Amino acid sequence: MTFLVGESCIKCKLGDCVEVCPVDCFYEGPNMLVIDPDECIDCALCEPECPVDAIFADDEIPEGQEKFLELNQELSQIWPVITHAPTPPPDADDWREVKDKLKYLER
Questions:
Q1: What's the rounded Cα separation, in Å, for the pair 75 and 88?
Q2: How does DSSP assign the chain, residue by residue?
Q3: CA pair distance 64, 61, nearest whole angstrom
Q4: Distance between CA 80 and CA 101 in Å, rounded?
Q5: How much is the pTM?
Q6: What H or E segment, with its residue span, contains residue 92?
Q7: What does DSSP assign to residue 34?
Q8: Full set of structural domains in the chain with CATH
Q9: How much of the chain is in helix, strand and coil states, percent to nearest 5?
Q10: What separation in angstroms does the CA of 61 have from each of 14, 64, 65?
């Protein structure tokens, strides 16, 4: 099992999850964070820290978010690793409740 970051993180990128990760498996893109599933140790510390409920176990992927397992794997190989919470976008609060954000993902 591994954890992954889903659609709710797009354009929010709050980063509370990064601060509790003991193995530095988070990677930062232009407007989203992802988890490297090969580095994740399944500790589950990040999941309750996410204020937008964007993190979930790979065996509990919500319907419609299955693509994010593949996206986390792919993007963690090209984005830089981060060890501290990034500065969220200035409009992050405006995006917290928005659904269907995949089209806004910047690679």
A1: 19
A2: --EEE-GGGTTT---HHHHH-SS--EEE-SS-EEE-TTT-----SSGGG-TT--EEETTSPPTT-THHHHHHHHHHTTSPB-SSPPPPPTTHHHHTT----GGG---
A3: 8
A4: 22
A5: 0.96
A6: helix 92-95
A7: E
A8: 3-80 (3.30.70.20)
A9: 25, 10, 60
A10: 20, 8, 6
Q: Which two tokens stand for residue 5?
A: 């970051």
| Interatomic CA distance for residues 91 and 75, integer angstroms | 23
pLDDT tens by residue, 61-97 = 999 999 999 999 999 999 999 999 999 999 999 999 9
* Token output for 55: 């993190």
Beta pairing class for 33-35 and 3-5: unpaired
**Both tokens assigned to 29:** 């893109």
Give me the amino acid identity at 104. Answer: Y
